[in-house]
Design goal:
The chain is of the alpha+beta class. It has ten helices and 17 strands. Bound molecules: zinc ion (ZN).
Length: 395
């Protein structure tokens, strides 16, 4: 079933929050029509004074008439005064790069949505298992259990190596009861050490019911058998996802370690247009959206659907990627932008070839680490780094 992102989002926003008091509770309606009472007037006067003096402070401070001091909440005012002027910003050389457009209207983008959220009635404190089905993505699974995608990665660190592209059908995943990390106790570990590594307080681990450590009065008394798994609520790891490097027409050979599709030499060729086009036939986001662990969008497709050059450019990678993207093409657009097309079933262009915008360069597939046919599409800019393609292309 296809649904628009906008309507799904609106539903979520519109759903009532049971615990919030009604904004128009008893007693409020009655007072709103009357003139303010004396205490209310006094409060209004006081509020006005506070606002006026606050504004005066900001103005004088901006003009250097009020001394500044360290780390106070009113440093926000100083930050306002220090904001670069438009002249300073204009020194950035953005003239020969496409402008950063406003995000594409959500209404135009559809996303496959499964409304199978399995939120338990009572909070669970134990890890449960989930077997990956064909077509699953990290993001689907996280949604299903009300977790962040990172918590699925970090609950299965040995299996997934921190990468959503490691997900395979029939893998058995740990589903943590809360967002955080999962850690197997080693000989010589301490709660303080583990907590420090995952950037939480030691008590967060000690007090978590699922860890069964309630018998200890303090973290320093804890003894745990090596091999025991601990839930680290709120724990974080570095995001260590493999990410495709920047591959340019000047020196595409730097991508040799990526796989046998690397190109050698340096190339000349077409330069990209100021705007990009949608790179395949279907217009639906099928799985992983853009995030820090997945700097790309996955677009729905069937094996063999056309893949188009999103802008004119030169082929700087064409072939197998050893890191999970299967058959992959990278185009360098010569204007500071590169685009990447992964999991292809076929490739129609070779190293150094110039391609025009809209030309068929390959076919959608499911090669590499993929649970079903889709196009993995990345955009990278010298100025912005990896960007969410939905900010630059519309379906
Ligand atoms: Zn992807």
């Amino acid at each position: 079933m296809l649904r628009s992102v906008t309507s799904a989002h609106d539903e979520a926003v519109a759903s009532p929050k049971e615990n919030e008091p009604s904004p128009s509770g008893p007693g409020r309606e009655a007072s709103s029509d009357r003139a303010p009472s004396r205490p209310q007037r006094a409060a209004l006067v006081a509020l006005t004074l506070v606002v006026v003096s606050g504004l005066a402070f900001v103005v004088f401070r901006g003009a250097g008439l009020v001394p500044t001091w360290g780390q106070s909440p009113s440093d926000e005012a100083a930050a306002v005064a220090n904001t670069p002027t438009p002249e300073a910003a204009a020194q950035l050389k953005v003239s020969d790069l496409p402008a950063f457009p406003t995000p594409a209207a959500d209404a135009d983008i559809t996303r496959k949505l499964e409304l199978h959220t399995t939120l338990p009635d009572r909070p669970r404190a134990k890890v449960i298992k989930y077997t990956v089905k064909q077509g699953d993505t990290l993001f689907d699974i996280a949604d299903k259990y009300g977790l962040q995608p990172e918590s699925i990665l970090w609950g299965n660190y040995d299996l997934l190596k921190g990468s959503p592209d490691s997900l395979r059908t029939d893998q058995e995943l740990n589903i943590l009861p809360v967002d955080g990390t999962y850690y197997q106790w080693q000989e010589g570990d301490s709660i303080r050490g583990v907590a420090g590594f995952f950037r939480v307080a030691p008590e967060d681990i000690l007090d978590y019911p699922g860890n069964n450590l309630a018998g200890y009065a303090s973290v320093d008394e804890v003894t745990i058998d090596p091999g025991t798994w601990l839930i680290v609520p709120g724990g974080k790891r570095e995001v260590v996802t493999w990410q495709a490097p920047r591959i340019t027409r000047a020196n595409p050979g730097t991508a040799r370690y990526v796989g046998p599709g690397a190109c050698s030499g340096g190339f000349d060729g077409p330069v990209g247009e100021p705007s990009f086009i949608w790179p395949t036939t279907l217009k639906t986001i099928s799985g992983n959206g853009y995030s820090s662990v997945h700097p790309a969008i996955d677009i729905a497709g069937a094996v063999g659907n056309a893949v188009y050059a999103s802008a004119s450019g030169v082929v700087v990678y064409s072939g197998w990627n050893d890191w999970g993207y299967g058959y992959m093409i990278v185009l360098d657009h010569g204007n500071g932008w590169q685009t990447l097309y992964g999991h292809l079933s076929g490739i129609n262009v070779g190293c150094g070839q110039g391609v025009a915008q809209g030309r068929v360069i390959g076919a959608v597939g499911s090669t590499g680490n993929s649970t079903g046919p889709h196009l993995h599409f990345e955009m990278q800019s010298d100025l912005y780094g990896k960007v969410n393609p939905l900010n630059f292309v519309s379906p």
